[in-house]
Amino acid sequence: MELLQPEYLSVILIGLVVGYLSGLLGKGGSAISTPALQIFAGINPFFALASPLPASISSTLSAAVVYSKEKLFNKKVILLGALFGVPATIAGSYLSSYLPGKTLMIFTALFIVGIGCSLLYAFLKKKAPEEERLEETEIAAAPLISATIFIGLLAGLLANAGGILFSSFFIRKLKMPIKQALACAVVLSAILSVPGAITHWCLGHIDWNIALLLSLTAFPASYLGAKTAVKMKTPALEKLFAGTLVIFGIYDLFFTLLK
């Protein structure tokens, strides 16, 4: 692998940018990496879809170290999410070989835009931020399990970590404070990325040169992103998160329709 080749220099830059955003916004980064790899690095769409998954593991674990120091994790959410999300991700990864991904990507992008607009409206209306963290006893298991299965299936189908969907669900439906929601989403993204990466590797969907470059660059960048998130004031982080959802959703939607 020649690191000075233009496409690999682009991959390094993508890894740094996506890694920082992953730590900042509690996501794995695949939703941004896939179109970016195709547009800016000229990577084959087949490999651009799943090759970012190993980097999602490194970036989310790096961010999780920062969030753990702030004691933002909700153990019940993480345990139930992992228990039901892992098998759902494996199932979705296998189904990805038989189902057309374009329609799913369009619906996912529209869903993310809708969630982002809804959250942005709610955050702009909110007068005072809620800093209290939700305890395990305050989390209803049934909706959490249902959402986790759905997000896991979708994550497997689209070869991503599901971080955006997890954090959006935690904020919107579980009413988690945003920093706690991002912390839990980052851990679940790391956990769900493992079976997703292994399954897509077995199916021949991963270029390990790309995966290695993304992983090495995303790890330190994600740590910096998470450090930024925990230091930001809650209202600013809320608006940044919601606005970014809208931008990423529109970005993915247009890319999917035009490719």
UniProtKB/TrEMBL annotation:
It is a multi-pass membrane protein. It comes from the Bacteria. The keyword S-adenosyl-L-methionine does not apply. The keyword Cell membrane applies. It is found in: Cell membrane; Membrane. InterPro entries: TM_pro_TauE-like (IPR002781), TSUP/Inactive_protease-like (IPR051598). GO terms for cellular component: plasma membrane. PANTHER family: MEMBRANE TRANSPORTER PROTEIN MJ0441-RELATED, MEMBRANE TRANSPORTER PROTEIN YJNA-RELATED. Belongs to the 4-toluene sulfonate uptake permease (TSUP) (TC 2.A.102) family. This is Probable membrane transporter protein.
